[in-house]
Design a protein that fits this description.
Elements (H helix, E strand, L loop, with lengths): L5 E8 L1 E10 L6 E4 L5 E11 L7 E11 L7 E4 L6 E4 L4 E2 L9 E3 L4 E6 L18 E5 L9 E3 L8 E4 L4 E4 L5 E10 L2
Antiparallel strand pairs: 1-9, 1-10, 1-12, 2-5, 2-7, 2-8, 3-4, 3-6, 4-5, 6-7, 10-11, 11-15, 12-13, 13-15, 14-15
Amino acid sequence: MNGLAHSCYLFAIDQRLNFDAGTTAFTVGATVTGGSSEATGTVKTVTVSTGSWAENDAAGYLILSGVSGTFENDEALTGDGDPTGAATANGANSDYVNSYGKKTQTVSSTATTCRFYNKKAVPGDLEYGWSGSFPAVILPAGTTLFEGQHVSSTETGFTHTFEIQWPPVYYHDGEGTVHHITCGLKAVS
């Protein structure tokens, strides 16, 4: 799409994956893969709630970022770290909600083309309204977004992490095809 001269990084919601029958500890930073679903994710944290790796009965959960696909209940889980990690999925992955009731997010390592406009670069002071004076970002059609999602940038005037403030507005061309997406922003850091 012409005119998208900036770049940004979109965040994704971290996923919780319960496990049991754990025989080998997972390594933080390793990729875990589901044996039948072939879903993957990067291990952020490992929590053992009961049992132990030494007794081959560790049970708990993994917090994963960058999840692709849906893990299946009772499938074998393997990690590619050192140690390799081995357990059985105890249910499908789901959005991780922390102890404060917030979904945690991890930034993507892949830049997305975009266009920022209406600079107001004071964190926490980016109130918006429908007058056109709110900071916003235009993203290409097909970008997957959710309200409250974080977007980060190093573009001049937009060097913050922002939160999407309302459901995205989809703009169509004359033939009904989505041309681009516009989202209001509020600085969060």
